[in-house]
Amino acid sequence: MDIELMASMMCADFGRLGQEVRELDESGIDSFHIDIMDGRYVPNYAMSLNDLRFIRSATDKPLDVHLMIEHPNNTIDIFINSLRPGDTIYIHPEAEYHPSTTLQKIINAGMVPAIAINPGTSVETIYEMLRIVDKVLVMSVNPGNAGQMYLNYVGEKYKKLLPMKEEMRFEVYWDGACSSDKIKTFAPMGVKGFVLGTTVLFGKETSYKETITKIRNLEI
Question: What is the pTM of this model?
Fold first, then answer.
């Protein structure tokens, strides 16, 4: 199955972070999803800049950096300088006065420009930005915490975005409450990648390799 699988590293065991990265790397994960939260845009604090830098140094796989912070343009250079060309940076359009300016900085640095949209964000409000981003991360839960329940109405958002992706040249990704049945349903519709957290990957009795192999072998 030709999909991208990203490990949500905020769900990892930080007491053995280096080993977690190695095991995920060896399991065949495609990239490492890094959630940065500032306690203002979302009511939580998550991964730090040092966590990001450590994971960047510990793997050759791409990083998928999700900035859940206010006014990312003010600090975007710090994140760009901690990454490698080809890594992805997502911003939330509502968090910035002029999101296209921030996206242009990401493009100029050789990173993959991307936006993340909350359950309450309409496709219509981000329409123009679809022409300048390579990825759209659709949140199927409200941002800020792991382990939340899937919000059913978000499925309609995928139905609006997917028909536009070929013309505007972007890919659609899933983040939040990602289970095998969601992958089986939405991958055939055209969703390119899925962020895997506590629903299917972390905190399970099976190894990461077993879980990822099972997902890739899903019949869809």
Answer: 0.94
